[in-house]
Amino acid sequence: MSGAKLGFIPKHIISCMKRICLLLFFALPLVHAQEKVPAMDGGAGPCALELTVTGPEAKPVYAATIKVHIAYGFGGIRRLDLEAGTNSDGKVKFTGLPRRVHQAPLEFQASKDDLRGMATFDPSAECEATRSITLSKPKAEESH
Fold this sequence. Notes:
By secondary structure, the chain is an alpha/beta fold.
């Protein structure tokens, strides 16, 4: 052997390894942050609504269920019932919504366990929109 030490690592290699470690450290959280938003396509028009569902502590709610009933067309003869669940960021998108609906605004009902919330959306006024829903425990109905 020509006098090369086995334990010696050149400074430029160490510097390069540090950069790679820093890149991985800061890039891995971004992979989670860019999780694909689930989409439900109604196939009835050009409008869309993206929803973000949070809980009482303002944290995203995973697997919350969002439902909407849509009556559209002449006299509301066509009907569409859509249901979708949120991802780990509390997001879901409804696409393919009709621009004209029979009874606007549409009510998007969200639920998870004993928590409930709602967002409204009028596609004739705003075809592309974003809304937030904060889930909370429903207030007990007063008996008369």
